[in-house]
Amino acid sequence: MTITIFHNPACGTSRNTLALIRNSGVEPTVIEYLKTPPTKARLQQLLAAMGIGPRALLREKGTPYAELDLANPKWSDDELLDFMLAHPILINRPIVETPLGTRLCRPSELVLDILPDLQQGAFTKEDGEAVINDKGQRV
What we know:
Layout: E1 4-7, H1 12-23, E2 29-32, H2 40-50, H3 54-57, H4 77-86, E3 95-98, E4 101-104, E5 123-124, E6 130-132
Parallel strand pairs: 1-2
Antiparallel strand pairs: 1-3, 3-4, 5-6
């Protein structure tokens, strides 16, 4: 079974999502997308699998979103993809692919809906929020 996470280790949500995947007993393929951005074709594949358009994947906070005027509806989907490829920080994260689906996991608990294996123990987010109890069930 292959699980892939497009990950940013500087992002708490991404770290929590990765930890939840590992808590299910799986070591995923980790792609640090800021170091190794997806190709345009791969990004289009991910969007299609998630059933969303490029605008829904744009990250605003901590990015050149405002400077590039990306809220402007004049930009086509293709142009938005080009911006994301030129500035990978614009790609919202984490994106997780599993045999059960592909999802933007914000909040991190969304990954639980697409993990094939159950949680193997308790899990608490970095901020102290309990997500999984000691029986491996959602709190």
